[in-house]
Write a structure and sequence with these properties.
The structure holds two protein chains of two kinds. By secondary structure, chain A is mainly β. Chain A is built from one helix and ten strands. Chain A is elongated and about 60 Å long. The chains are: A mainly beta, B alpha+beta. Chains A and B meet through helix 1, strand 1, strand 4, strand 5 and strand 6 of A and helix 1, helix 2, strand 2, strand 6 and helix 3 of B.
Amino acid sequence: MKFGHAAAVLGVLLAIFLFHHTSSATPIVGVGANVVYESSADGRQYVARQPISLRGGYRFSLADIYLEYTNFRVADSGTSMLYVAREHQEFLLWGRRIIRADWVVSPTAALGLGFEYDRVKTSFGAQSSEESGSPLAIMASALGARVQIVEYLDLQIEGRLSFGSGSQPEPLFGFGIAFGASF
Amino acid sequence: MKLSDTIGSPSSWAFAAVLFFLLGAGCGGFRPNGANVYQIPWPSENGKYQLQNVSIESYEQPATLQGRNVQIFVNPSLADGQMQSERANGHYLRNRDGVMVPTDYTSVEAAAIHAHLERLLKIDTELKAVANWPARIAIDVNVHSNGKRTVNNAFFAEELDALFVPPYTELDVPIAVNGGVLAHEHFHRIFQSMVFKRIGKGGYFSRELQAFREHAFWSENSTGGSVEMVNGQPLDKDVHGQGKPQASQVAKYNAFYLSALNEGLADFWGWVYTGDPNFIKPSLPKLGNFRSLDQKPVERLASTPQLLAWTMGSVNGKAFTVGELKDRSYFVGTTYARFLREITQALAQSKDITRADRMKVAGALIEVLPEFADRAGKTVRAQELLNPNTFMIMLSSKISIVGELASSRVCRTIRRWAAPDWDHEMQAVKCLEPQRTTPLSPKGPVTPATPTAPATPSSGGEKGGTPKTPRKQTTTPAGELS
């Protein structure tokens, strides 16, 4: 559980950071569409998944702290009789640094920690089984840019790399675009 | 009021976030490697496949689909004659009961293969069967034949020492999860190790055997001979008119016969493992009915002239296509599988055949394979025809039979089912009558009364003699067996 312990320590540090900066914080929310590339079963290619994400948190002067929920479904073709469909969900706590706020296109860098879990529906003939997995720790990093569209709205574009402790043996990479609002 | 006040203060968000995060991280960190119960389609008591929780001790690296008994290759390629694939990705979740549940189709296939091969290895160990381990199994294989992608099939590629399972597109149980079909294919691995390799020592037989498996062989040789059939039997003069078949014909015959025997014994192995005489049916219903081991009435084993006629690839002027010849080898093989099932039934203490009954005959089969291989090797090297009865007679000598009734039943079964070549000798075999007190063969070797007949038939071709004219084939309904 080393990964989980490290995540917990980092979470505490983030909380301390939040306590010290509450006076200048502004709530933010966002919705995003991503593309995540998972290695295929044969390891020869990458299969694109297209999750949607919801975000909510706070913006400080040059940093955003927010929670992100991501969800995508994979309808594995299988066969007519044996069919497996997976739903993947992630909860990540992100810390994002706005590197140059004075630029029109502000570069950003972010680190996220959290957990993921899968649900699967297996159909075999007339039989059907739905199972949920245990949460698994996940860590992610992102590089991107933020563009202020109007006073309360911005557009965020980023590339991501995530490392899970689950069955996916390799890091996942992907791209995302999100619209955010601050109040 | 500011909107931020309505949502909540930043400090409360922070507390919620940290609490949420700690809960998640505390629950996380599970690694699937090491868990050993998997949810996969598995045959139930009545033979019907259902999703069940199955223990797999040897599946040690599910994240890459690998285990100590099985190497899985997903969509492999060939490079310099070697099978290669990228590192495969397995996807499983562990549910609240600790059961590993596959989250994609390939992972279902892999887990089922590991589960079945683990149990087949246990049978091998129990019976002292020899095969190369870990088994190399390729799934989702992209194989083309005659310009079309091969689907809904499984086969053992001996040159790669790998079992191939191409994609399944039918509506029933996928072949990769069908234990009977996997057992069938696994037996080819055993036959390869215990028979073909043994026969092929010195490299003599490998060329002919390899040729049999290549379509080009049949394409080039399909018009190599013509056999006139009368009453379902080839005329002697066409087969043996020159006194002895040509060496190339003998080689083809022996390759065809051994391949057919291999298929038949593999069908028997599928039944031994599953207990389902129609184990192919759950995946391939039409083929299953054709290959079922409990089909009645049962045909006798094909005679030497019959086999030779088919081997020549032309009957009554009509040449077999490559596909027909391949089908014919399965057809010939199936009669051996049914024969073995009848012997098992004859041995059984009750009408219901138990696993122990099946294992008894399976054990005898494994025991006889090396001896049969040595004998077949000599015959092949002498460029003589393998006799279709030899294997069954040798096998019967290995079966431990307890009780006069069983002894009588087995003896009668062999006499009725043997290829017609030996009719004149089989008629001389006097099977034990159950009510008699004098045992024919107390411990089981059920051999014809003529000592030299079963082992060294004078008419079957193994000694190179001219077979007598085959008698008209007669089939005795199995129901008449005592």
